Structure formats: structure tokens, C-alpha cells
Amino acid sequence: MADDIGFGRVAVLMGGVSAERPVSLRSGQAVLEALIAEGVDAVGVDVQDDIAARLAREHFDMAFIALHGRGGEDGTIQGLLEWLKIPYTGSGVMASALGMDKWRTKLIWQAAGLPTPAAVLLGQQSDWQQVMNELGTDVIVKPAHEGSSIGMRKVHDAQALQDSYQFASQYDALVLAERWISGREYTIAVVNGQALPVIQLRTSHEFYDYEAKYESADTQYLLPSGLTAEKENELQQLSMTAFELIGCRGWGRVDVMADADGQFWLLEVNTSPGMTDHSLVPMAARAIGMSFSQLVIQLLKEVQKR
Question: Half-sphere exposure (CA, 13 Å, Cβ side) for 126?
Fold first, then answer.
């Protein structure tokens, strides 16, 4: 049993106050149940305003971060854990903050010559038609710091672009418009320095939005991905490079589009992805024979090695 490994008392941090709170609660509960089943002294902690005092008071030896979105995936909780000297799963402060910021992640990838769709920042004074002219017929509008596709819309004209900016700005002060890539969508899980088998995502929606991720019954997850072995390896290598360039460690997920010519385009990196039994990282882990319980134990073991 895992209690012989010496994890000590583990806080499973979940919930939080972001727009992704409901998903985080599901992730955290799944992780908590798996750790307890493996004999780990794990405690579920719903992250609220008193989290600093609670973590200091309850003397945890490690933390498993099952938080999604701002406050949990953006370096904030990571900085608190660093201050309290509590080792934790996943990326550190800098990589978490960068990974949560789609705009600055994109700038770093561009500077390194990695393929990522062209994008511009939007503001009240933007020339909406000029943005459409620059980015192309189809554009996707994104809040820079939200996950789970919250606040995102695909647009086809200048008026829709302006309206979608107003919609997205309800979620974030930083909003970007990105060139739409028509093609197939893939996600690549990274666990402890290894890119897991690629998953292709298929949805009847315009894109893999919140409903397609969490509510729709017709979303398809292709594993194997349908790529040739050569293209799958190319995509895994690209994803590892993108992941490491942001400074990520431990585990995460990279989302990618492939256009009609088979060219891969990096969309974003997720430093604290979903961890329910139906989530993408556990799905990819199962493809290499790793159960959900084995996955969460491996993520804690990686923390011990630091």
C-alpha cells in the first residue's frame, strides 16, 4: 500500500473560487477517493478565503493540487505552498502563471519559433474590421486567463467580434482574438517527463467548448488518435518542447490543432487539468496500462524526487 512510501498527510486541494469550481470539486473528489483507497492519509480541502491559515494550522506534508482556473492554476496557490514549505504536485509558480495566460504563453512559443496561430489583443478601441482582415475569415475570441473554454466564441465578422469581446471581457480584462484553425483537435498529456498517447477530440459543436467537454453525450475521444506513428511522435515531441519551454514540470496537458495540410498548431498548455475518471489525462494514462490510482500515486512520487 502507498502508506509505506512516506507521503505523510496529503491535502487534496479542490474547489476554489474560480469559474471552474464545479469541475475542480469533481476532480478533487476523484483524487481523494483514489488516494484513500491506496492507503494514503489524504484529506479533502475546499479552498476558500481561509486557506492560508488552514494549511498552516493543519500541518500537511504534501499537497495534491486539483484546482482549476484562477487562484489554483495561476501560481497563486503554488506561491502560498512555497511560502509554507509544503511540496505540491504540478508546475511551480512561474510556469503556472504563464500557462494560465494564453497570450504570454503564445508570445513565448512564437519567440522560440514554435507554431501557434496568429493572435491580437483586443480592447475597447480596437479596429474590429482590421482585426478580421489581419486574422482571416474565422476568428476565435478568448479570455486570456480562463479555462474550460469559458467565455470563448467563434466569430465570422467585425460586429460579432466586437460583441464577443464584450462577452469575454466579463470574464477577464485581457481578451485575445486568434486565427481559427480548421481541422482536427488533439490533446497530449504529459506525465513525469513522458508524453502519453495522443487523443483526438471530435464534437458536433463549433469547437470543443464547455458543453462539449462536460455535458454533451456525443463528444468523441479517439484513442488511438488516428495519426500515423510518425505524426504521433512528431506531435508528442512538439508538445514536450512546448510544455518544457513554459517551464512546466510534473504533469499537464497540451492542446493542439492540425490544419488541412497536417501542420500542427499549439493552442495552450494546461498545468492542472481535469482529474475525474472521465478526464483526458487519466484516459491517456489508461492507454499505457496506468490506472487512475496508479496515476495519482505517480504524481505524488514525482514530488518526492524534487
Answer: 24
214 is catalytic: yes
Q: Which of 15-19, 22-26, 104-108 has the lowest average pLDDT?
A: 15-19
Q: Residue 50: which of 85, 80, 29, 82 has the closest Cα?
A: 80
Reported as a pLDDT band with limits 50, 70 and 90, residue 147 is low
Cβ neighbours for 123, distance < 8 A, ≥ 6 positions apart: none
From the CB of residue 229, how many other CB atoms can be counted at a distance below 10 Å? 8
178 is catalytic: no
Global pTM value: 0.91
User: Is-catalytic flag, 148?
Assistant: yes
Catalytic residue among 178, 253, 272, 279: 253
User: Is 302 a catalytic site residue?
Assistant: no
